Queue: 4 jobs
Job 1
Amino acid sequence: MASKKKTKSTAKKAPLKGKADKKSGVAAAKNRSVKKSGSKTDRRPAPASRKTTAKKKAPARKPSTAKKSAKASAQRGAAPRATTAKRKAAQAARPSSARANKAHSNKARPVVSSKKTSTAKKKGAKKPTTAKLSAAQLAKQKAAEKARLAKEKAAALKERARLAKEKEAEKTRQVKEKAAEKARIAKEKATELKEKARAKSQALKEKAAEKTRIAKEKAARKAAEIAEKQRQHREKLAEKTRIQNEKAHEREQASAEKERARQEREAEKERIRLEKEAERERIRLEKEAEKERIRLEKEAERERIRKERELDAYKKARAAERERVRSEKEAARRALEGRVAQQQRRAARIAGTARGTSSRVYRPDAVPSQDGTRREGLNLPRPVAVIQQRSITRPPSNQPPPRDPPPASLDERWVKIQRRLSRMPERFQRDYAESFDMSWIHHDSALEGVVFTYQELKTAVDPNIVIVPDSSLQPVCVEIRRHKAAIEWARELGNEDAPLSAEVMKRLYLLLHPEEGDLKSVKYRKEIPQHRLYFHDYAAPDKIAVRIRQAFEWLHGPEPPKLKDPVRVAARLHYDLLRTFPFPEDSGKVARLLMNILLIRAKLPPVIIHSTERQRYYDALRGSLPTIVQMVSDSMRNAMVSIEKVLDEEEANDAAN
């Protein structure tokens, strides 16, 4: 293939060489004509064909300068001497190579027009009479000569340019032919390489297919051999398994026979043992029953004696409570009578009708009720007091205007009360808050069997009293202040959304009893307490933690939102905690504080169960849940009625003033 390509390329290049030879021949002929027509003094050895062409091309670079100068001189009509001087100055300013080319072109010029010059000389010889021509005619002749020379020079330049273009086109064609030849050779090589690669890949595929076929045949033979071996192995295993099964069956039959005989012996032994055990158990149960009967009789006797003692203590406590209430009422009545008498004496002195100190005038509403204080069964005549009525001028009473009935719902009613409280003077709000806290502490402690006096409560609650002046009141004031701190923390929790838990319950208990330590050290009760005034069931000490967890899980479960009654939810938590009774003391205070936290979160007032409702409260704890729910609702309504009365009185006083 390579040899063929070389021959083609050489064949194509051959015409190029012929053309070049033709061109060189033309140039040589021109040189020879130049040598013949030239003078004897200008004979030089003829250069090579390529050098002659190069010399001929050189003057073509500056043809325009002479032409322009000739035209300019013809137009201006200047003297030939001035034109010649300018042309000489321009030639002197050109480079040496340009002057050489110009001299060469001037020497070569007779070659082109040798015949014309000879004819011109002949004509000049025939007309010697015209030597005296005018300067204008000479100038015209010179201009015509210059124009002719310029045209000849332009024609020569065009010829050189044409030859240069032909040569450039020939070079471009040769370059393209070489590039095409190279591309063709590269394409042939690429085709040959592709053919070789295809043949090689085909051979590799055939070889791989042969290897795959041989491998498959080997694998098939090997699989057949393995299958045959496995079949033989399975047959051997089956035979071996059959023999082993037969032997195992024989052994199982022998062992089953032995086991049956053993079980019969064991059953006989077990029957005899059970008969003996049953007899012993019967005798033991009879003894235990007798012991239990005797123990129950003793326990019943002790319980009867304990209940009798507790009943006696309860009766004594009730009697003491009644005596205390009666004495308080009596003291209040006496104080009221004293104030009334003092006011009447003052009024009498003002009116000038004063009486003796022994005579008193009472208003009908100033005499306290004596119902329930007279002795039953005695029909004593009631003394009739003849009181001289006198006309006393009294100021007109300022009764408050009738108000709208309170809202039916508890939360709307409480919102209305709070709005009225916010409009009251600051002094009234401060006194009301202090009285409310004192009432809360008094009644809550009275439910637990501890009664505080007004002086003790006032001393402990007053923020101006830091150190208690009476040392005997110190323990009582400390207890009251702890209770007040627990109430304040309960209010803070009521304004938050933190979930209630056993930890919150323990913190409340620690506020009431800081001597118990901290959350880690506080413990639930370890025994069953016997309260002297109420007898409801308690949880066993080992069940307290479980019952507490169940109560708070119920509180955070799905049932309370479904009830849509915050009073019932709070009462249920209070009821469950008191039925558990987690701490040895003040479990009731803690349970009621947690109940009030839930009520405050529901935008309701805290509930204060009045101490006069103590027995009803304990009876409700012994009963069912609806009873305690009703009692909590009643206490809340009564508290709202009391607050509304106080607000009405205060508003009436403000209106009067």
Job 2
Amino acid sequence: MSRYLEMVDHPSHVKKLTMPQLQELAEEVRYELITKLAANGGHLGPNLGVVELTIALHKVFSTPHDKFVWDVSHQVYVHKLLTGRKDRFHTIRTTNGLNGFALRTESEHDCFGAGHAGTALSAALGMCAARDQKGSDENVVCIFGDAALTNGISFEALNNIAHTTKKFIGILNDNEWSIAKNVGAISNYLNKLITNPRYNKLHSDFERWLKGWGSKGELALRLGQKAEEALKGALSDVALQPNTNKDLTDGRGGASSSLIFEELGVRYFGPIDGHDLPLLTSVLEFAKTCDTPIVIHVLTKKGKGFEAALSQPEKFHGLGPYDAKTGATPASKPGTPPNYQDVFGQAMVKLCQKDNSIVGITAAMPTGTGLKYLEKALPTRYYDVGIAEEHGVIFAAGMATMGYRPVVAIYSTFLQRAYDCIHHDVCLQDLPVIFCMDRAGLSANDGPTHHGLFDISYLRCLPNVIAMAPSNEDELQDMMFTCTHVNHPTFIRYPRGGGEGVPVKDQPKLIEVGKAEVVQNFSKSQGKKVVLFGLGNMLKLAKQAAAELTSEGFDCAVINPRFTKPIDAACTEFFSRAADLVVTLEDHALMGGYGSSVLECLADKKISTPVVRIGWPDVFIEHASTVDYLREKHGLTVANTVAQVKAQFKDEKTIGLTAVA
């Protein structure tokens, strides 16, 4: 470990370093990020971009007394290194290691947890209101990205800041300034600022404040003027260049307008160079003295200090293991099944080529969802609405009223943000919007903010919904094709990562809505009869458990339910009446999930066959290195399934319902 970083065991230690030492610390932090994250991966690019900003924040403010609220918080790695967690930094996003996001239970320096975009401004404003109520003196600093301003929650917060508090510090971390279309917009805004009297007054205030520092203030002022002059020239030059970089980081662009902030009663300062430590610390010191809400616009380079991350911003936004020298990532092993997201994206292209009414919509995740294939092949049929899931869903509803069949590709966890829109604007009007929910199940390294474990529960209570889960990648394509022939809201949930290795047909086929597939029927053996309903990717586990139980004398049937709403009531009833035990397996929370729908069906039919449910317990599942570790810990395994079945027959008088997590 480098010498200055080794000295920092608490953020107060940052304050003891001189400016040259802080600049050296910044380089040491970058080296630490690049080398330590290489083993397991993580959000490298965003954190390389906020090194100087984070150091400046800890130089000027004092956590945990002062509060830093990070939007999304995937860019808190530097903050973690400076707040007593550097010795555990190599464990980030691994089993029993540091979380990849801000986490209140992990450190007193993490005042607010996050993982989804657009929450920081509201949370920080709430803290300011609480501070004002108490009469205390904490500084609350909200660090939010330009992409957060594509999210409606952020504007709801901005609308309330000036009416709620007199002291609020916002840092607009704009890391998309190297992309021509965004930088050109920023250039226009900067020109507006120069002619804005309020902008000039704020700069005059800052100049007077700096001059009060004597010779040091004059130096900082000259540095600031040079940075601003260089910035204006850079912006003007870049704005004239054609946009050759099509790799928006997760599609998350966006820019700010000083006029928006000013009209909302928030003073705006910037843009300033987010990698100029002397300038950053001076501006932040000034912000501490402001008696009115202020937003400081900081321009940073995502991936700064690592050429591979600078040249491939989307890839290095978040990735797995890589070579710390070259940035190269391991090649897939021969024969590795394609990822579900890629199967989805390629199927979208085929469907759109044959049906002009189909369009694809994503909320800033073209690569993560697989819609990048559609963007490339048929760009006029592709829409990226930014981090605006609510808008995306209602936008799709509007298109559906005009005869189109929009396919909304949003992660299960992010679709939660648009629940009212699903209810009020899609389901209530029974519109044929197709929702494809990637990451349904676990996102192991990311943890509870990104697991998709609740969609069955929150969807199956809504009228008009048709919801399904494919057991393999070929069935995913069939379900997508089926959805284009259904005049109701449809939902498909599928997991992160690779499929089952089932070849995808050239021509998809229709699946009868609400019809399960009997994979294995009962034999004529005299053993206890057990029927296993394995939903989606849990069908594989159900078949493995059935094979083991069969080898021990049980007579097993295996069902691929396919649909979570409507479930195949006839199939469920038939096999439940014939069986001595029903087992449901789902990659979802047990509370309100597929197993619950089976219980309801049996109760309605007055069937008393015992039910064992295998699924996730009623807790927020932690992060870990692998999905397998979490399944083993929480009992979503073949071994636990077999053990629970055997336990049911230890006492032949056993009746009732058993839930197993």
Job 3
Amino acid sequence: MAAQRPRVRFSLLWKITLPFMLLAMLLGLGAALLVNDLLSQEETDRFLRQLIDSGQQATDAVVRSEIDLLELERLIANTEGVAEAVTVGNAEDLRARVLPLAVNAGIDVVAVVDNEGTSIVTVRRRPDAPPGDYDTLRGESYYGEWPFVQRVLNGVTDEVVGDKHAGMEALEFEGGSVHVFFVAGPLLALDQTLVGSVLVGKYTDRLSVEVDNEAGANVSIYDRSGTALSTTHEPASDESIDVSFETLQSIQDSDEGRSPVRAITVAGSEYWEVLTPLVVRQGTENLGVLGVSLLRVTVQGGTENSLPVVLRFGVLALALIVLIGLLLSNSITRRLGDLVRASAEVASGDLDTHVNERGTDEIGVLSVSFNRMVEGLREGSIYRDLLGRTVTPEVREQLRTSFSDGALILKGQSSEATILFADFRGYTSMAEISEPAEVMKTLNEYFSGVVPIIALHGGVVNKFDGDAVMAFFGILPKYLPAKVSALQATHAGLEMLEHIREVNKERTERMKPAFEMGIGISTGTVIAGGLGSEDRVHYTVIGDTVNTAQRIQQITRNLGGTALVISDSTYRKLGPVRHQFRFGRKGLAKLKGKQQEVLVHEVLGRSSTLVGRQAVDESIQHYTGSLPRLAEILSGETTKDARKAPQASEDELEFLEDRLEGEQPGSGPLPVLDE
């Protein structure tokens, strides 16, 4: 009858939680006030820093745009034939020279004027026109009225930027006026006489969009009176973002690096906008105001002067928490420490560990459960050790996965695989005249070579049946094409025959009878999975292919001596790699339990290998310390010099895995098979 599970009478949760609940609530209230206040201030400071950084990036973007316009102005002014065309007033020749430059640069407006300020030719792209679609105008006289153009034509220069000037003016279109940011420079003839001026302009709407993209913020451009000329905002028709006179005064009065910040409302959302002078010509000329704004996400402010109060409160609460925590934790951690030490002892292999079962809380219940767990470990250690020695790692991993899924019995799967049966002959007569321990030792001498050979060729030993062994290929640890499993099994069978010949040489030298082995191989559809009940399961493969392989092995007795015979299905799966093997007799065989005769092929030898001889020898040498040792233990014939089986290192395991995967072939090439 199962032992009754101990009950928790006074939960450890309440032992720890109740004293701390009130303190935690008080501390949380004070911390909330402090954090709220600090977050509010930190958020404001961070937002202002981000806004100022965006403003600086916007100013830099305007400077870069001015430089681009100046470069285009110089290119046009220095283009061959431009000055001559202006001198003679040849508008068509001038258009042919200027228009390609404007199109390539994607500029909005280019105007070439004479000494009177009248345009010889103007090429400009309408604000809504696609790139490359320019209108050509001539004879406009309003350029001469613009102050910056007059300064160019009057030859005004300074020591900072020379004879280049800039300004913002409006151009008239059918839909209304559009403001343009211009740079202008003199146009000189070959004799360095002034013949006119070149103006290059960019619409302020386009300029604000470009600056917006570089600064990562909304950008607005205002004239000197504070009127918005362009903006990347989308204000409602009744909203105005113009800069007031008082704000303009604060911009002029502000110190360098401390630009004023104002709050504006656009489409119902609050933005904070930093305002800086829109200066050109290396800061010598002010064209208006540049505004850079970000959406303001506010954090509720905290109570004023709350920091000292919260700090004093927090110190007191922490002192009380530490004092109470020490008292409570001391009574808890003593028992937990006992469990930790006992767990470490169990982890090191000591299953005689026991902990005191004090109390009725969770730790007391845990102590009882721990002791029961250790008892179960002691009872099952021998069985687990035996399972780990007699089941291959592939099968053990498959069983572990199926157990964890809770569906081991239902995991039977149909697949195409290759089955190998090998029979050790002479066992019956030997068992009649030999001691049981000697028979066990002899069988393990035989199996110690067979098992690693099967494993190195990708097979899995499924079961031992007296003097016979059954193995399958192409299922574990992963499914493989039947062409591959047939190749692996055939090579493994030949390797087993070579091994038995080596064993026979040693036995002959010791004056003992030689062994004979018969091997049968068949390829076909099998069902692989757990077979048995929920509490006792055996992983195996079943199907007609398994029966065929076993019956083929039985007919090898008729061939005399040691022999390897494969079914016609395996022979066909070998396909283009049959040249690796030497085949002997073939014919139809009447198999026990089958109504129709089966075509079989005798395999005599091979011209290449899948696994090198050295790998086989090393694997057999490692394996011989396992099953023979187990046989001695079971038979009670332990010798004085018996040692534990050597544990494979990570390098050795990696070496064997590489051999299995074919990365390091043996004496012959590893064929490439299409799946």
Job 4
Amino acid sequence: MISNALSVKNSINGELKIMSNVISFKPDERNSAISNIISYVAYYRSIISDNEIIKDWNALSWGGIYRFTRFDSSDNRNCNQPLNESFIDFAKAYIKCSILFGKRKEHTKALRVLKVLEFVLLDLVGNANVNECNHMVLDKCASIIYEKYTKSVSANTCKELEKIINALKLNRMIDLPHLDWISPLRFKARKSWDGYDKNLKGHSKLPDIESLLIIASIFAKKDEELSQRDMFTTSVVALLCCAPSRISEIMALPSDCEIFENDSRGIRRYGLRFFSGKGYAGDIKWIPTEMIPVAQNAVRRLRMLSKNARELAIKMEEGYEKFQSQILLSVIDENKYLTAKEVCEFLGFYREISNDYRRKIKGITLNGNVIKHQDYSYNLKELKRLVYDSKPKDFPWFDREKNIKYSNALCLLNRFQLNEINDTYNFVFEKPTVCLFSADIAKSGDSDKRFINIFERYGFNKKEVKEFKINSHQPRHLLNTLALIAGMDGFDLARWSGRQCIAQNRYYDHRNHAHMLSLMRGREIKVENEKLPEARIDDLNILKNGAVIVSKHGYCRHAYASEPCAFYPENESGTNEERFSSIHRRIREKAISDREEEHESAHKWCEFHEKIKIKEL
């Protein structure tokens, strides 16, 4: 068990921060399971980490994400009772280990499973000692999970339970070291081919083209013709249509995201530096040539919207002394107490009627505190300190994992900057939320009744015509489908989309039936100049197993785990010829021999070969 916590000077920002260089827990083979659990908990508890979520070990809630409370069959959020004292430290150690070494950003599914496990241990065993897990406990867990969640969620949750049991076995923290439990829940998503209609309408995964064209027409307007809200919404949609992106990736773009490079043919290309939302890490999304002006205009507008907020963040990064010396230099006496009007004007709020100043101040909050509305409540120095302390808790990091600061966040906004009713807080900046963006393109009524979306603001979405809407993920599906139609290969598409697994491409493939049919008809196998390897029947003199299929046309080898071919041409088996008949006999004898030696799954191949024998007779 080794832990090496290093204090390292960050060369980028000059800050002193704790970096963890940690080797995972190594159990002592001589110890009992309970002793290894105690060591496991002590080991991960002792690790120093710069992750804000896991700094306070004793807290019942970590970062508002992980709540170590009891399982509640109706709703886990309703329960405030802590996990059993003999289980809670193990649960925290496991979650901390997952955060330190896991590939995912969040591990709430693992905590969900741990809560069920604790509940079942207390019910069946009478205590919450995780070393006492057995088949009965785990089957009961699977049963509860199945009753509480949908089929797909249940299957995924039970896979997480398998991982936890494997971790217990690996770290020798279970009394049954050879416990071999496999989740009984399986869910196979049945995907029927659901392609785009030729008129580009009516697909749930793809955007409504008319709605997209409306947003494009608004984006094409001049800057002075757009409100800040319109500019923000249309610019984000434009970037979503330039390259297949998740909305979280657009919101987390750095201000200096643009990049130019020459390709292998010397052509100058334009791309955006991005960080994938699902563990793909950083890369460049190259923008198609036709969309480069669109992307550049969208980035320019977002940079313009965030300019004031980013400049304020830069001043705050330099510390309070530099910050307070750079604002409102015209006032010489900082100790002079200000009237309500002067406070409002300092914060950037102007009113024609003097009484409106006090009314405005009553609604202002800084750092969670309501500003006092009486005259002479603050001097300038106190007001500057209030403003400085109102910066976000995670300041200066907009996204620490991606190394993006507030001062370099492309989509950073001042508070209420996009709100046409409330005044903008020029001295307060915030991260834009996905909801802030989604509400502006969603179906009216799906968002706040008091809020009108971008389609309604421009006279669309009237009752007598269709209701226009899109969601942020639909352009990603559209671009993937168009790329596949254009012939982009799977690897390039997965990389362009920021996708770890190429197999996930199929969920974004919505080509229509006509296109797929023409694609299949257009593929001709050209073999006239290509010499194919010849399969020799003599190769079957050596049999590794009886999972072999032979016909007059050739043979194919399998493993016993595979299912015998359901479309085997029995009339073409060749059993009426001595040469083929002897081969069938040898394969059948090999399968019977392996079955007698209790080789797993050999019996089904014996049955297959017996059917061929009967056909021969």
